[in-house]
Amino acid sequence: MTSKIKVSFEITDIYNLGDFRAFIKFLLSNDTKYNVYIISNNDSSNYIHAVGEQLGIELSNRIICNFNVDKLQAITDNNIDIHLDGIYSFVTSVENETEAYGILVDSKVDKYGVKQRYVE
User: Fold this and answer.
1) How far apart are CA 108 and CA 117, in angstroms?
2) Which of 17, 45, 67, 74 is deepest in the core (most CB within 10 A)?
3) Which residue has the higher pLDDT, 21 or 97?
4) Cβ contacts of residue 5 below 8 Å, gap of 6+?
């Protein structure tokens, strides 16, 4: 039996992107393949728990950290395979200091201003 792919994301600044929310919901709808975590150092634990509850993410998979070093430790401690974040320097730290793949989620408006696209 294949183990689930563990995917975590930072909630700050990227969860408000509609396409990103849809992507997270897709991961959660395929619960036989993915185990989704929120690993965040957002100042509002109420916000993190509200989003986690809305998405049906287990309480044990909602991890609130104080600093980036704590986020890196949480990624390592939970054996995360992929971490999605909106800060390039943190994605670089994930790549260099953990076994996880770091993916940058950054909305960019196309040259015609018609739709957003994402940079990985």
Assistant:
1) 5
2) 74
3) 97
4) 33, 34, 35, 81, 82
